[in-house]
Write a structure and sequence with these properties.
homodimer, alpha+beta, 2 domains, five-stranded mixed β-sheet
């Protein structure tokens, strides 16, 4: 089998180029398999079997409570979002807790209350679980694995796509983007990463930014009904830069992004400037990047805004003229936007 | 909602009466739901939706490698066993890793190799995953969530049960035992707990005991084909004593267990005696306790032995004469076997 020296580095779990290399070297070759059209090695947001998708995520965010939410809200949003960006409806979830001995029951209760609130909001059945208590300084770690199902909105979306071009997939795939399609982001970026980082000891700017953690299915179900979405991702670890590069690479299309169109709070931009962070690499937990057939782009944008995503914007287009993701400034200068090596903030989700 | 003071104690995650109370007080009331016939509050080994079962488990065993296996083997066996004891065939699995920064790649590789070996052996597709790296002293924690499917052996088993009595369930449930049925354990008990404990720093008796970690589906598929099993559990945290009490309580039947018939290595008995541990409360990771209609018990026992479980034994019977699990000695004296308050060994799975 594969023999490897060395040790695991924090970058190996930080959602950028390093993590991708780590997974391709250490984990995926040992297990690669599929039960439907999506293989483990496709590294899509979920994988599929029969008429279901399946995904898993362990949340280790530090601190466990932050402006706009907690690890509990995150565990429901993050996992249901990985299902929703396949076009599937999140239906079933498991809950596996690792809790540090001595963890406050009151804090645990608050975290679980948020999970209960958001699973109910999504009408998700939480049907199985596990609990371990450890004497390691982990605080709390939560695994939620989730199952999503095919639904009328997804069928409609794919039917609309197929009116315009060949689309061989059963789900909305991150490899599904075609050329001359429109790139939409569903709202303002980088607020989760900035909020969590700002809550950490020793930073705490006077900043009114909350985590954007939110279950995107609550608006995607309407937007899919409009139809024409060929690829989607939720830009978590590694942020918008990572999500765009993944879609570009897997779909074999280049992208042109109009930098000034990327929706972002001024305070988020300022915070990142001061700390030397790239907001395009900061995590989001309630946003979607979608690629849409040109003919449907305006309708999809309208539907996003109607469904409450008022900062949704068309930020660029796909192209076959180059393979890279290119940022274009207002005055027309261009530079390549590479995938981040790693998320600038550790333990962000 | 529920307000709770205090902190989480190690017993709250240790698989006995304390954990059950903790879950019923803190976790289950917030989420209780079902997608099929099994509710979260049933606390069965898996839960169901459509023609599938779903289960989750996070493994935090310390040390991560022990005689007879590793946390990797355990993660495949433990999760597939929770599926198999429902009568379902384990088919799909997710893999979510929490790895401490600085963890040796060589050790990680060995752990993943064992996972790969056993998933292949079981023909399980590992289709989705997640990786987090943390700077907490957790070593490695592995979540595997699994999905199992209905299969011909399960159908046959339930058909046979229904020749003898009413059985309202679609799956083999831990609440399914009837009175005057036969209790079988598939092999020698307590070897996982003893082996892990003996590997810990500062203990290390000169003991030739290996963990019994093993995927029980590999023999259950044949045994179900014989048929007549009304209830099953894999006796992990809290051991045989916990599994018997759970079946007894949920099924509303008492049990009489012939103490001398419980299969156990002499060295395991000696180790437990010296350390003042109850072998009946020690964890197993490759065993099944099953309740079988009387008419089929001998055939099921034969089939277990034929399928390689040569130490399988009939250890007792169910009764409606009392509600407790009662241990009967060779000379006929009786005492109640209560559920353990907690597994005597922490971080055993």
């Amino acid at each position: 089998m594969i023999v490897n020296g060395g040790v695991v580095r924090k970058e190996d779990g930080a959602g950028g180029r390093y993590m991708s290399e780590f997974l391709k070297r250490i984990v995926i070759p040992r297990f690669d398999s599929s039960a439907g059209e999506i293989k483990l090695s496709d590294m899509d947001d979920s994988s599929d079997f029969d008429d279901y998708v399946f995904t898993t995520d362990t949340y280790v965010v530090d601190p466990p409570v932050f402006p706009g939410g907690s690890i509990g809200k995150l565990a429901v949003c993050g996992t249901s979002n990985d299902i929703a960006v396949m076009g599937a409806e999140p239906k079933i979830m498991s809950l596996s807790l690792i809790i540090q001995e001595g963890f406050e029951i009151q804090l645990l209760s608050r975290i679980l209350d948020e999970m209960a609130f958001w699973t109910k909001k999504l009408d998700i059945s939480l049907i199985t679980g596990d609990t371990k208590v450890v004497n390691a300084n982990i605080g709390i770690a939560i695994n939620t694995s989730g199952i999503g199902v095919r639904n009328a909105s997804l069928e409609r979306n794919i039917d609309v796509v197929r009116e315009y071009r060949r689309y061989p997939w059963k789900w909305v795939r991150d490899c599904g983007a075609g050329e001359k399609e429109v790139i939409i982001v569903s709202g303002r970026i980088a607020e989760h990463g900035v909020s969590v980082l700002n809550t950490r000891e020793g930073i705490s700017f006077d900043l009114e930014v909350e985590s954007d953690a939110y279950p995107v299915w609550l608006f995607l179900r309407d937007v899919l009904e409009v139809g024409g979405i060929t690829a989607m991702k939720d830009p978590t670890r590694g942020g918008l830069a990572n999500a765009l590069n993944e879609i570009s690479e897997k779909s074999g299309v280049g992208m042109v992004i109009h930098e000034e169109r990327i929706p972002m709070l001024e305070s988020v931009r300022g915070f990142c400037d001061v700390l030397g962070l790239d907001p395009l690499a900061m995590a989001n937990e309630g946003k979607v990047v979608m690629i849409v057939v040109e003919e449907m782009a305006d309708d999809v944008l309208k539907s996003l805004r109607k469904a409450g995503q008022k900062y949704a914007e068309i930020i660029g287009y796909t192209t076959s003229e180059h393979q890279e993701v290119v940022l274009e400034t207002k005055i027309g200068t261009r530079k390549i936007l590479p995938p981040p090596m790693a998320d600038p903030v550790p333990r962000v989700c």
